[in-house]
Structure formats: C-alpha cells, structure tokens
Amino acid sequence: MEPEIRIEDYNYNLTDDKIAKYPLECRDASRILIFRDNSISESKFANLTGLLPEKSLLIFNNTRVVPARLIFRKETGAFIEIFCLEPYTPTEYNRSFSSTSSCSWKAVVGNAKRWKSGEIRFDSCSDLLLSEIDLRATVEDKIDDKFIINFRWSLEIPFSQVMELCGKVPIPPYLHRESKDSDRERYQTLYAKERGSVAAPTAGLHFTERLLEDIDNSTIERGEICLHVGAGTFIPVKSRLIIDHKMHSEPFSIEIALLRKILIKLENQEKIVAVGTTTVRTLESLYYLGVQCKEKGFPNDVSQWEPYNQDLIYSVKESIMALINWMESENIDVLERRTEIIIVPGYNFKLSDVLITNFHQPQSTLLLLISAFIGDKWRAMYEYALKSDFRFLSYGDSSILFR
C-alpha cells in the first residue's frame, strides 16, 4: 500500500550561502559527515577507506554526463535552448551517439513559444568548425510537456562528437550560473564510462585516483552499475502528498558478474556500500526484478510503487539467485531495464547497507530516500551539517550513512 507522506514534513532552511557553487580544488579534500549508531561525527573524504566496513562491496554508478544543452538561433535572432534528455530514434544510447547524419532525442525546449515550426540552426558564433558541422533541429512531435527533436548535421562525425563540440554541460539549475570549461572535468566522476546522463551521480565526484588505489589495496571490493541520471532528478515535488508525485523513469544496466559478487556478499553477510542515491535505486530495483522472475518467469521494468503493493515472501538471496538463473538461461551477460522506483519512509531496504551521498535539497525525493535510510535522525544530521558549515548539494561535501 502506498504510504501517506506529506512533502512539507521534509523541509529545512537551505540558504543560498550554504550551496557550493564550485567544487574544491582537490576532490577528496571535502568533508564527510559520518552517521553511525545514531551518532554524528566527521572526517575528510580522503580518509574514506578507514570508514568502510571490512570486506564490503563498494558499488559505483559509472554513467557519464553528456553536454546535453544545445543553443540554437532563429533567423529572427531569438535563442532557443534544447536540453536533450534521452534518445528517441534510435532509442539505444550507443546507436544514437554513433549516428553520423541524423538522430532524434526527447528534449526540453527553452523559449519554445518563439519556435512554432520550421528548422533552426545551431549558433556557431562564427566558429569555423561549428559552422562546418552545420547542426540543425526540427520539432517532430510533442509528448506531454516534452518535445521530440530531430537533429541533422553536415560533417560525417558521430552525434557524440557533435554534442562534445556544440553542447554545454548541464550543471544543476540551483547553482544559478552558466557552465564553465572547468565543469566538463569536475562535473564528471573519474570512473565515468557510459555516456547518457544529464546530471552527475554527485556522490562520486569526491573520489581521486589515490583514494581508489587506497581502496583497492584494502579488503574492500569494487563494482559498477550504470544508471543514466535524468533531468527528473531536479524536478521539485509539487504535490502536497508524495503519493501524487510522478517519479521519473531512468534506464540502468548491470553485469551478471556483479550480481554473482552481490550474492556472495549476501551469503557471507558482508556489507554492500552504495556510492550515491542512483546506485541505491538501481540496487533496490534488482530485488523486484528477481521477484518478477520468480512469479512471472522474466523481469520487466520496475514501477514507482511496486515495492509497496505486494507481500514479499522471497528472501533477497532467493531473488538475486532467480535473476542470475534467468540471465544464465537467456545467455545474457548484461541486464538492461528501466526503473521509476521511489524510496520513501517505510521502505524496507534489501541490498543497500551503507550509503555515501551528498546533502540534498529540501522537499525532494532524494531527501525522502535519506529519511527512509536513517529515519527521523536526518533532521539532526542536516542541522549539524548546516551549523558546521558543510557545503551543500552537487559540488558540496559528503556523508556516509550506516543503516
């Protein structure tokens, strides 16, 4: 049964001076708040290895942010911003990024009222290479409040390169500034691989090569999933009750090799540590995919309220084993699905024991996830962070939460 939760109960006073507008010079110099056994302490992120449970499995989201903001200019001089959300034709990220003449994307369009119809051209600002690319856009369709935009260009280069040359990094709107060249590096994790996100999995922004090497020299194992973070992560909850909020859907993938590692950790009662809320949403979705395998014989996507609308009789080990068995029977090495799971107070966590995460906006679904993870103590934690001048949101400081 869906929980009755009022979003106004998950508010706190976040003033603009607490929001980090730029990252620190050194990634792991950020502070980390430690919430363990209902007590709060702090350290430097560089000391993370010593905070992690021995023999734990540390799971990262290896998605890569794409420069998804494209600025076009109409012949009248009006600027039109196209914010690409996800590929439409072809629907697969890899095929869309490798397209060499045209492709279509689902997008948000800024100043759309000035663009009724017709083709518009990318504003090259007299740059010779950008003029040669000659990127153009037309509206194919509109679905709800999103546009389907067809792009075509002249140079025979893949759309991924078109984006890299023409696009801007879509930094969060609450930074209240334009993206800079430095954001291309710093609004990206060091281990980012799979192109597709329009927002960074920001918990991972604190990791350095030295820290990853430190982790690899310990008893801790590493693993990677991929969930492409959508613009929905920035959409505020507008409904009074969370039950009326429509959660966004995001694609994710996981290798069978990691599922086998997860199963071993479950059998040995060793901890699974999620780097970021996107990793938590992926991990928790796996349980419900396994339940679908048990009950339907195959896994579909995970719907928003699926965890709350059934009596679950399967253990986590049974569920993960069912998912592995299905993948083996279908000869699938990488599982690709979508999830719109929402994690709110009352949720029963299945796979995530420890969470590394930044500090989130008031009245957001991410703050609801934090409350689900550590209970009402989130208030004391956030009050401590505010009073102690921790830096908030995407470029801010970190926290490690023990459930």
Overview of the structural elements:
- 26% of the residues lie in helices and 25% in strands.
- With 403 residues, it is α/β, with parallel strands linked by helices.
- The chain folds into two domains: 7-65 and 187-402, QueA-like, CATH 3.40.1780; 69-167, Thrombin, subunit H (Beta Barrel), CATH 2.40.10.
- The strands form three sheets. A nine-stranded mixed sheet has the order 2-1-17-16-14-3-12-13-15, with helices on one face.
- Strand 5 and strand 6 (79-89) form a beta hairpin.
- It is globular and about 60 Å long.
- The two termini are 23 Å apart.
Q: Which tags fit this structure?
A:
403 residues; QueA-like; Thrombin, subunit H; 2 domains; 9-stranded mixed sheet; 17 strands
